[in-house]
Design goal:
Layout: H1 12-22, H2 27-40, H3 45-52
């Protein structure tokens, strides 16, 4: 289930950013998917970098 974002608690810039990330025809969506894939792939350096920073 997708989370809803309220205009009462977020700025227009935040709402626009969220919309861009959720739109499959937008480059922000592709970048978010690529970033997630890199963080989940043990053969990618971002996999370990994302775990070291959270300690």
């Amino acid at each position: 289930m997708k989370e809803k974002v309220s205009g009462f608690t977020h700025t227009k810039k935040q709402l626009d950013s969220y919309s861009n990330q959720m739109n499959p025809n937008n480059n922000a969506n592709k970048a978010a998917r690529d970033n997630r894939a890199n963080q989940m792939n043990p053969n990618n350096f971002r996999y370990y970098a994302s775990r070291i920073k959270n300690r």
